[in-house]
Design goal:
This protein has 284 residues and is of the alpha/beta class. 42% of the residues lie in helices and 24% in strands. Helix 1 packs across helix 3, helix 1 crosses helix 4 and helix 5 crosses helix 9. It is flat, with a radius of gyration of 22 Å.
């Protein structure tokens, strides 16, 4: 029995990214190609490697056992290949992303970049988008992924994807009447003024009840019933529901995610890293 590297890589991607579609995007192949590789691998080993539950996938017991070997095999293969093909690019690059970026995908970018360019070093930051933008402006970062409204986008920004903003609340705390307690990310970002403006236009009385420093804190406060919040749809987790009262409020605009370099001529390392980020994260 011979197991090919790319089939093992596909299995790892499907499990780590929790789906065929995301794996296909990450590997830059079609979803049918991902399905075919998994089917071929299962036929070779004579075992079912994935358990399909609706739209979700998880490894079977045999799949988990094979994954342990697959990670080691693929990692060793990639190290050998990149050792032979590694570039002479050198230098340090400071990169930042907001926390809502998939950790699996961004770590895949940074890990691959380090393997291909072993003479480079990366300093990685996670913070809110408005802080990352300020760090770029102050040249404290070289590259960042930033969430913003379309009107704030620059010509030099590299588009990644758009995300719809939506109102959310806890099922048992829907605030159908009266003053609405608002959960926000605090001052500096565009969520709070956007939310307050929308509520004011709809003549809905409100007050800020909670300001959190992260998506996790805002989701936690909303799940606890402390108020309603505006979140990007891709960030919604847990038991949150769309706020029913939002049907009386003007629609919120979409947000956009971009890759941005610091002002001035970017270094060769920064330029190459932006290219890798766009390749990995850009919506197709």
């Amino acid at each position: 029995m011979l197991l090919d590297i790319e089939s093992l890589r596909t299995l790892i991607s499907v499990v780590d990214l929790q789906g065929m579609t995301r794996a296909a995007e990450s590997l830059q192949i079609s979803q049918s190609a991902v399905s075919w590789k998994i089917k071929r691998l299962e036929e070779k080993v004579g075992r079912n490697l994935l358990i399909r539950e609706g739209h979700s996938l998880r490894p079977s017991r045999d799949g988990r056992e094979l994954l342990e070997y697959a990670r080691s095999i693929v990692d060793t293969h990639d190290k050998a290949v990149h050792r032979l093909k590694s570039s002479d690019l050198s230098g340090k690059v400071r990169v930042g992303t907001p926390e809502e970026i998939s950790t699996a995908r961004i770590w895949a970018v940074l890990s691959r970049f380090n393997r291909i360019h072993p003479k480079t070093s990366i300093e990685f930051f996670v913070d809110r988008s408005f802080r990352l933008a300020a760090m770029l402006a102050a040249s404290d970062l070289d590259v960042a992924v930033i969430q913003m409204l379309e009107k704030d986008r620059r010509k030099s920004d590299k588009d990644l994807w758009r995300d719809h903003l939506t109102w959310v609340c806890a099922p048992d705390y829907q605030y159908a009447t009266g003053v609405v307690p608002l959960i926000t990310f605090g001052e500096g970002g565009f969520y709070r003024p956007l939310a307050r403006q929308a509520l004011s236009k709809a003549a809905i009385p409100h007050s800020v009840a909670f300001s959190g420093p992260s998506v996790a804190s805002v989701i936690g406060a909303t799940e606890a019933g402390l108020g309603v919040a505006v979140l990007a749809e891709s960030s919604i987790r847990g038991d949150l529901i769309k706020w029913p009262r939002a049907t009386t409020i003007p629609p919120l605009p979409d947000s956009t995610y971009v890759a941005r370099a610091a002002a001035g001529e970017p270094s060769a390392v920064a330029t190459e890293l932006i290219s890798e980020i766009v390749t990995e994260l850009k919506a197709t």
